[in-house]
Amino acid sequence: MIDFDQARAALFQSEKSRYVLEEPMSRHTTFRIGGPARVFVSPGDERDLAAILLFCADKGIPYAFLGNGSNLLVSDRGFEGIIISMGNWNGLHIEGKRMRAGAGVLLPRLSRKALDASLTGLEFACGIPGTIGGALVMNAGAYGREMKDVVRRVKVMTRDGSVKTLEAEALRLGYRTSVIPKEGYVVLEAELELAFGDPQAIRAEMEELSARRREKQPLEYPSAGSTFKRPPGYFAGKLIDDAGLRGLRVGDAQVSEKHCGFVVNRGNATAADVLSLCAQVRERVREAFGVELELEVRRLGDFGAQEEQVRT
């Protein structure tokens, strides 16, 4: 691995840019799981971000982007590369019915700001613990709404450090998918198109959705949200429950007793525990119903032979 102390002067021009060596990823994921990243970088501006991407390409160093770590399982061995945090992209502006938000803006903050401006369309996002950048990568959604319903255009950086703007149609947003990871883009900023609404009605819907989330989801334990994608014609949580797997544990990783679609960390779960549990769940559901569950949670790092157990 390159000596980052020597490389720093060439890479970072912004005073906001920071890096840390051997940073535990358990500090940066909602699962509270993950070994150390060899280098953890928070670039301060587009110039420094482009410099990091070109540096990685030139040296053959693997890298990955991080939002809020809410849909991520990092290997116990960590990540032998560079984690690029987009936390500095946190600007938020409202002009009429349009919002422009940096990739690092959290969805709950975004939905609250929309409420303050009497804008409707983001109520579904009030309880999603991710950033807008991550939400666009996977077209995050809840309660029948998705990011594709509100996004208008997105500013991205390509692998070679150039910046371009993509209209919503070019993102190819589908169920938990987009063109963004396939093309190696990193989201810098998104422009959303909302509608004016009654602030009392908007607030009431947000409160209702938040109450439903508290009632039905295991928010008392760390998790990565819904663990499995919804199979066509089924609900993953119901299949898991009907297979008799509610409460199944491997170490401190457990199929939530509150909502079987979630795998939770009861305290000291490892990434190996989580993947072992997910492999058992997939096998039991396949045997019982002939349905193949696909992991929704993104994996990062070296999982060894375990990765083959959950690969789809």
Automatic annotation (TrEMBL):
Native source organism of the sequence: Candidatus Enterocloster excrementipullorum
Catalyzed reaction equations: UDP-N-acetyl-alpha-D-muramate + NADP(+) = UDP-N-acetyl-3-O-(1-carboxyvinyl)-alpha-D-glucosamine + NADPH + H(+)
Boundaries of every FAD-binding PCMH-type domain copy: 32-197
Cell compartments where the protein resides: Cytoplasm
Alphabetized GO MF terms: FAD binding; UDP-N-acetylmuramate dehydrogenase activity
Protein name in UniProt: UDP-N-acetylenolpyruvoylglucosamine reductase
Names of required cofactors: FAD
Primary localization class, coarse: cytoplasm
UniProt entry tagged with the keyword Lipid metabolism: no
Function: Cell wall formation.
Active-site residues from the entry: 176, 226, 296
Family the UniProt entry places it in: Belongs to the MurB family.
One example of a Gene Ontology biological process annotation: cell division
EC number(s) reported in the record: 1.3.1.98
Pfam families, A to Z: FAD_binding_4 (PF01565), MurB_C (PF02873)
Annotated keywords: Cell cycle, Cell division, Cell shape, Cell wall biogenesis/degradation, Cytoplasm, FAD, Flavoprotein, NADP, Oxidoreductase, Peptidoglycan synthesis
This protein's record includes keyword Nucleus: no
Pathway: Cell wall biogenesis; peptidoglycan biosynthesis
Alphabetized NCBIfam families for the sequence: murB, PRK13905.1
This protein's GO CC annotations: cytosol
InterPro entries: FAD-bd_PCMH, FAD-bd_PCMH-like_sf, FAD-bd_PCMH_sub1, FAD-bd_PCMH_sub2, MurB, MurB_C, MurB_C_sf, Oxid_FAD_bind_N
